[in-house]
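JOB MANIFEST
job_type = single_chain_structure
chain_count = 1
residues = 334
[input]
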Amino acid sequence: MEYRRLGRSGMYISEITYGNWITHGSQVEEDAAKKCVRAALDCGITTFDTADVYARTKAETVLSKALKGVRRESYELFTKVYFPTGDGKNDRGSSRKHIMEAVHGSLRRLQTDHIDLYQFHRFDFETPLEESLSAFDDLIRQGKVMYIGFSEWTANQISDALKIQDQRGYSRFVSSQPQYSMLWRVIESKVDPICRAEGIGHIVWSPIAQGVLSGKYLPGKKAPKGTRATDTKGHGAKMIAGWMRDEVLTAVQKLVPIAEREGLTMSQLAIAWVLQNPNVSSAIIGATKPSQIKENVKASGIKLSSETMADIDRALGGLPEKDPAKTQSPNPRA
C-alpha cells in the first residue's frame, strides 16, 4: 500500500480507502463486516470512510465495533453530515444545530473522541454558508474534528466557501469527495482545477462505477445472480441502473484486453486509472467479502503509461460523462 497527503494538509492517507456505504448495517452482517475491516487493515488500508446517514446511522456503529481494539492513532476515520438521520425538521442539513448534534452522535457511535475528516455530505441551499462553515471551524478548534471537506460540491460553491474561510480566518477545506471513474469524469472540467489550485485533494467514490467496470456485466445478458444489479431489496439495482445500457457494457468489454496486457483485473485497472490523477489522494472501495479487498488493493502503486491511458480513452470512445451540468450521480447519498 502506498500513501498520499490529503490535499495540502500534513495528513497522509492510504491510496485505497475502505468505505462502508450500503454494506455495513444493511447488506453485510456484522461478523462479515468485521472480517472485511480486518482484511483492509492487514492489506495496509488505514483510511475508513462512512457517514451518519448510511444504514440510518447503523453503519457507523458497525464500523466502530470492527475497529475496536485497533490503536486509534493508526487509522484515519472519516464521516459526513447533511442527509436526514431522523424524522424531525432539524434532523438534516448543515445548520449549526444539526451539525453540532450530528457530530456528537457520530462520535458516540464511532466510539472515539475525534473525527479525522468531517465532511459536508452535500451543499445545503437552505442554510447560510457562513453559519455552516463557522460550525465546522468551531469543531476543529474544539478538537473534535481534525480536518474538514465536502462531497459533490460545484466549483462555484467551493469558491464561495473558500472566500468566507479566508475572510473569517476559518480552517480551510482539505478534501473533496466526488464521484470519479473512467465513465464519470464530470469533475475534470471545473471542480478538479479549483481543487488543484487551492490544495484540496480528492477522495473519490465509485471508481469501479458501481461494479460495472469490473466487466462482470455483459451486453445483452442478464446480470449474474447475487450482484449489485440484482439487489432488489437494497439500493443496488437502482444505483447501477444508469450504467446497465448495452452501449456502456459493450464499451467496457473493450477494456478487457487492456487489463490483460497490464496484468491487472478489470477492477484493478479502474482503480489504478483514477489514481493516475495526481490530485486524487485516495479511491474508496467497498466490499462484502475480504477477497474483494485483497484483489483491489493491488491497484495501489500501479503506474499506467500514457499509451495505456490513451488506449482506455479510445476503447470508451465518447462514452465518459464529462458534462459538468449533469451532476446528479447514480446514487444521491454516496
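[summary]
The longest helix spans residues 96-110.
The CA atoms of residues 84 and 91 lie 6 Å apart.
exit_status = 0
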